[in-house]
């Protein structure tokens, strides 16, 4: 009669075999959001042939799942239009062709960031509940979180959850933000746009469970003179400029990078970017995101080595 049963012997052997742990694959995620110039006014039919091709190592969130990025087939802003995502994605891949990127885009035309708005209507400086704005609230429990931020939050939360369910570890790499024309219509929202951006950046990071990441934003309303409805164009552009981490201002925000848009081609309405302008905007966003990330990493290393 054997001293040990086969089952007991097998159990003993398993105790001797070292446990092998497999690291989860990291998924690099970028969030693109804002108002109409993020939604996009570029025309797919005007894209050069090289920009029309699917990008194999980029997955795009279609609202329900990640799918391969095919600019001609995906609904980027209706059937025929696109936004900065085309230039953004092609530039990321050109800089790092071996990495897979995951892109989440959510944009709403003509919508504000400041808590004082309810859609196009100015309600006053104090926040209020159930307003149509991208205002992210001061915390996840804030009852005044804007309806548009709730929708943005729902999109990136679902996207991150889908990656986790697929066995990947999502890592937020950056946010591209193209918005502000709506906030240029009131003095307070224009002059304090840097504060709104600082709060937005912090809240997206918190809601994604992320360390600080770059937020790159396009400087709004490059055409001068601006249309009469943009009453506080100089103030909001100045607020964006001082928010840039390189500005030297005491209002500078670490990780925020203001992308100049002067000279980028516009449509006849002088507000929205043409096909060429959208490609230039997206390319500039991607380059800025990489530069800002490098600068954040450098500052972090300097801080570690400081006596």
UniProtKB/TrEMBL annotation:
Keywords: Hydrolase, Signal. Residues 27-290 form the Sialate O-acetylesterase domain. Pfam families: SASA (PF03629). Residues 1-23 form the signal peptide. It comes from the Bacteria. SUPFAM superfamilies: SGNH hydrolase (SSF52266). GO terms for molecular function: hydrolase activity, acting on ester bonds. This is Sialate O-acetylesterase domain-containing protein. It comes from Blastopirellula marina.
């Amino acid at each position: 009669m054997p001293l040990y049963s086969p089952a007991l012997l097998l159990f003993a052997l398993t105790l001797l075999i070292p446990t092998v742990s497999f690291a989860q694959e990291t998924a690099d995620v970028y969030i693109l959001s804002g108002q109409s110039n993020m939604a996009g006014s570029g025309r797919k039919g005007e894209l050069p042939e090289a920009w029309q091709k699917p990008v194999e190592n980029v997955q795009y969130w279609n609202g329900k799942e990640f799918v391969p990025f095919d600019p001609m087939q995906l609904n980027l802003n209706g059937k025929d239009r696109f936004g900065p995502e085309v230039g953004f994605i092609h530039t990321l891949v050109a800089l790092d062709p071996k990495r897979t990127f995951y892109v989440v885009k959510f944009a709403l035309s003509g919508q504000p960031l400041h808590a004082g708005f309810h859609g196009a209507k100015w309600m006053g400086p104090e926040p209020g509940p159930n307003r149509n704005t991208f205002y992210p609230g001061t915390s996840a429990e804030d009852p005044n979180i804007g309806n548009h931020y709730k929708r943005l939050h729902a999109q990136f939360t679902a996207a991150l959850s889908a990656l986790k369910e697929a066995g990947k570890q999502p890592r937020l790499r950056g946010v591209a933000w193209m918005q502000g024309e709506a906030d240029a219509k009131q003095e307070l929202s224009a002059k304090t746009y840097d504060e709104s951006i600082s709060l937005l950046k912090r809240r997206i990071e918190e809601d994604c469970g992320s360390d600080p990441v770059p937020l790159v934003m396009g400087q709004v309303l490059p055409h001068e003179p601006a249309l009469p409805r943009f009453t506080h164009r100089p103030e909001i552009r100045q607020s964006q400029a001082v928010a840039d981490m390189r500005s030297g201002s005491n209002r500078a925000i670490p990780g925020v990078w203001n992308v100049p848009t002067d000279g980028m081609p516009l449509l006849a309405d002088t507000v929205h970017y043409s096909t060429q302008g959208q490609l230039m905007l997206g390319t500039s966003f991607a380059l800025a995101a990489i530069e800002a990330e490098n600068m954040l990493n450098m500052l972090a290393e300097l801080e570690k080595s400081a006596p």
